[in-house]
Amino acid sequence: MRLTVRLFARLRDLAGRAELACEMTPGASVADVWRVVTSRHPPLEPFGRAVSCAVNADFARMDTEVRDGDEVAFLPPVSGGAV
Amino acid sequence: MSLSPLAVVREPLSVEALMGAIEADARTRAEGCGAVAAFVGVVRATHRERQVRYLEYEAFEPLVLNAFARIQAEIGRDWPGATVGIHHRVGRLEVGEASVVIVVATAHRAEAFEACRYAIERVKQIAPVWKHEFFVGGDAWIEGAIADPDDEQARHEARSRACA
Predict the structure, then answer these.
(1) I need a labelling partner for A59 at 20 to 30 A (CA). Which of B40, B63, B123, B137 fits?
(2) CA distance A63 to B105
């Protein structure tokens, strides 16, 4: 099954692209998609624990199962700043 | 309400416009409107001793609107009857320009202040908005929280700050 992956902010800068297509096997999770993305773009790897994700523009978790045609987005930590 | 209460916009933000819309909406509620609190986040000229030239805000818009709707619903649970508006700007912002405007209208002032503070804390925690700072001598992404709307610890923290 084929998915679209979207990368934002620093993840996009590090990967050098905002979007990529991923071929996954049925039963794959968001974490599996992340592994494919980081294998293609190793500079993203250190983000593993700090990344959050969305599937079809709704918040998801790394163990969320993905389906054919899904859009999976990986999000670096969001804009912070001091209190 | 003609103006959408939750929005991501590229144009300069108008505090008055959002305030007017939220107040008008609040007046139609049973409890009426006795207080309107507003928060405006502004681009600061310095950050970590760096001289800021400008900021570029990026957003995953549909997910930002989803996050704003969650915040609105959370406020509806904790401060029943509150009317909430959140507008975030994206694109290039100069020093002194408003990046986010939050307006909360309630029957009484205590809830308006609390819910408004809660809203900005939650925006900072979960809204997928990224700040790219361009300063004298370089640029850097400013990163804060790992966005997780179901993180109860973070929600509790936002509530504690709001109700200090």
Answers:
(1) B40
(2) 39
Cβ A9–B142 below 8 Å, yes or no? no
Q: What is the domain range of residue A44? A: 2-75
Where along chain B do its domains lie?
A: 6-162
pLDDT tens digits along B62-85: 999 999 999 999 999 999 999 999
Whether residue A56 lies inside any domain: the answer is yes
Number of domains in chain A: 1
- Band (pLDDT 50/70/90 cuts) for residue A33 is very high
Between A75, A81, A83, which is nearest B128 by CB? Answer: A75
DSSP string, B10-54: SSPP-HHHHHHHHHHHHHTSTT---EEEEEEEE--SEETTEEEEE
| A47 part of a folded domain | yes
**Is residue A9 less than 8 Å (CB to CB) from chain B?**
yes
- Asked, for residue A80, whether it belongs to a domain, the answer is no
Tokens of B32: 């009426």
The reported pLDDT for the residue numbered B48 is 86
Looking at residue A46, what DSSP letter applies?
Answer: G
Q: Which of A10, A75, A81 lies at the smallest CB-CB distance from B124?
A: A81
Amino acid at A28: A
CA B9/CA B156 separation, integer angstroms: 29
**Is the full-model pTM beyond 0.90?**
yes
Report the mean per-residue pLDDT for chain A. Answer: 94
Give CATH superfamily name and number for B6-162.
Molybdopterin biosynthesis MoaE subunit (3.90.1170.40)
Tell me if A12 is assigned to some domain: yes
